[in-house]
Amino acid sequence: MTEYITLESIKAARQAIAGKVHVTPMLSSEQLGQRIDVRLLLKAECLQKTGSFKPRGVLNRLRFLSEDEKARGLITMSAGNHAQALAWGARQVGAASTVVMPASAPLSKVRAAQAYGATVIQELTMSQVFATAEALRTERGLTLVHPFDDPHIMAGQGTVGLEIIEQAPEVTKVVVGIGGGGLIGGIALAIKHLRPDVKVYGVEPTGADSMFKSLAAGKAMRIDKVDTIADGLGAPFASDLTFALTRQYVDEVVLVNDEQITEALGLILAYTKLLVEPAGAASVAALLCGKIPLEPPDVVVALLSGGNIDLARLKTLL
Q1: Within 13 Å and on the Cβ side, how many CA atoms surround 101?
Q2: pLDDT digit string, tens, across residues 48-75
Q3: Rg of the chain over all Cα atoms, to the nearest angstrom
Q4: The pTM is what?
């Protein structure tokens, strides 16, 4: 299935979304880097439009919609960041959007999706979220814009990989959080085609480790329960496509726990003045707790995937 996303499709996505999303900055953190004895760079997708990397994939996907699909409307399922991005993107193309979110989704993400124009429906569990979205899609004839299991979405996310290589040509290792796997699949494909010597590492929370379990099993797996503060990494399964790309292009997937993620979030805020959500801190967490093999000559890029967090929740974490 990997033939449906290529370096050429990622480059085409970048051309298509140019000027509509930010080329996010690559920032250095000397103090965090000293803690792990490498040069550490942070790709700040937390400063992207809608507060995460998600609009890249959404805008690339929406350019393939027919006029009939736009007229009938769009639907997705999301813990929050993809919901916001789809609502924002749908408004750009004049389409109505419905997003199904878990009841545990941060209120700020729910309100943001609504503010961008989406109709929000909430369910108790992520399994129910996916089931409801599928039922509504069938019943209403809506077009599903999947949060990760779509080659156009993944090609859009892969534009982050192009920017990493251009902004940090000296990079030796890249660390990316994994939810459903669309982001790391696109990034890893781009990086390995441009710089096969660069190592790519994925990070999952221990309470949402579908890709880790998939790699161990040798096939895409679903987990029974998602239990992590990193809601942006809480996809309950890896798809065949994201699993195939991860197995082919990602060097290793490691796990971090919620305590390690929380500590990293606080240190990122203290040392870089960047506010990230727990999912956005997972990459740095893996580095700080020694899950990524490092050597002093390394130049490491950690992806800060998003910054959408409730201030009330931030108080409880810090």
Answers
A1: 29
A2: 999 999 999 999 999 999 999 999 999 9
A3: 18
A4: 0.96
